[in-house]
């Protein structure tokens, strides 16, 4: 970090007073005039340029609720130890951080996502070929395989009967998704990582959308599906409460969407991450993943019964 600090002091046209690590390849920088920036590393210049361009285009076409990149006057990329660094506008956070708790928060986040998709539709043509297409089934297939490869380890934490039931949900859901996978209805730029921490409430209480590392092109329903999967633990796995969200309601008439809600993507994701990052000795993280897997098991079981009933009713129409 000291070497990076000296490098940035040499490259940037302002004096740096501090550089603090936030996470891997992400730092908080403060200049002598007390201006703050986020310094973020990217594995390639192409990835960095894509991020710079997409945030610029979002603002240009009417989506102001995100950050901007600092424009280096000499135009040369910041390359340090095989990592390309971007200097990002620091958005001062509100004292009231955003979470998925509370109906109003969820409605506000969906409205912001809708605005993002509307601008994303305008940008699709420009970014076709520059952004990957979203292949949800391939992504979930790979996630399932990684989970299955760790089953013998996971059984030390979770009883066999629960794991078998979760795998049955995954199999039923995936077979339904394969049958219903169809053409893209409304192509747009997808955010792809709708964790609550990528919605940032700033000073003044406005909500911003950040971190576009996983953007792709695909049907907007895929972002809404991920959003729904993220909020379900916060609404007690209730299909009735999901229906109350106006922007999600139309998708609940789609068999593909309903099958997608049943897929235990979050369980697979969190166990794969826990093992990959060797967090199995961290009791706090293990407890969180166990709550997702075991603590919410019976609520999720009831929810999947509701989904099967909804799918049966759709088939009869």
From TrEMBL:
Residues 24-236 form the Aminoglycoside phosphotransferase domain. InterPro entries: Aminoglycoside_PTrfase, Kinase-like_dom_sf. Signal peptide: none annotated. It comes from the Bacteria. This is Aminoglycoside phosphotransferase domain-containing protein. It comes from Robertmurraya siralis.
């Amino acid at each position: 970090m000291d070497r990076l600090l000296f490098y940035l002091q040499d490259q940037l046209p302002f004096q740096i007073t501090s550089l603090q690590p936030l996470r891997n390849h992400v730092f908080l920088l403060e200049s002598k005039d007390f201006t703050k920036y986020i310094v973020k590393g990217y594995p390639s210049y192409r990835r960095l340029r894509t991020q710079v361009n997409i945030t610029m285009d979002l603002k240009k076409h009417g989506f102001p609720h995100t950050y901007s990149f600092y424009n280096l006057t000499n135009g040369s990329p910041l390359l340090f130890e095989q990592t390309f660094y971007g200097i990002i506008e620091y958005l001062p956070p509100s004292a009231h951080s955003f979470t998925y708790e509370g109906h109003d928060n969820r409605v506000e986040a969906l409205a912001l996502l809708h605005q993002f998709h509307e601008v994303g539709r305008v940008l699709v043509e420009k970014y076709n070929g520059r952004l990957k297409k979203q292949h949800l089934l391939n992504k979930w297939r790979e996630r399932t395989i990684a989970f299955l490869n760790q089953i013998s380890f996971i059984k030390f934490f979770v009883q066999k009967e629960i794991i078998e039931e979760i795998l049955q949900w995954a199999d039923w859901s995936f077979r339904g998704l394969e049958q219903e996978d169809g053409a893209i209805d409304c192509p747009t730029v997808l955010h792809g990582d709708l964790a609550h921490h990528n919605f940032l409430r700033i000073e003044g209480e406005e909500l911003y959308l950040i971190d576009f590392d996983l953007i792709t092109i695909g049907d907007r329903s895929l972002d809404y599906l991920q959003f729904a999967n993220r909020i379900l633990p916060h609404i007690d796995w209730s299909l009735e409460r999901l229906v109350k969200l106006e922007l999600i309601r139309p998708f609940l008439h789609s068999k593909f969407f309903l099958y997608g809600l049943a897929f235990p993507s979050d369980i697979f994701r969190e166990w794969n991450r826990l093992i990959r990052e060797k967090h199995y000795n961290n009791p706090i993280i293990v407890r969180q993943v166990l709550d997702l897997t075991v603590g919410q098991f019976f609520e999720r079981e009831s929810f999947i019964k509701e989904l099967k009933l909804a799918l049966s009713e759709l088939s009869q129409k």
